Amino acid sequence: MDYPGLILAETPWWAFVILALLIFLGVRRLRSRVRSPGVTLIVPAAFLIWSLFNVVAYHQAHSALVAWSTLIGLSAAGWASGRLYSSETVERTDDGRFLFHGTPEPLITYITIFIIRFGLEVWQGFQPAAASVAGGVAIGVSAFAAGRTAQRALRLFPARRTSAETA
Question: Which DSSP symbol is given to 128?
Answer without folding.
Answer: G
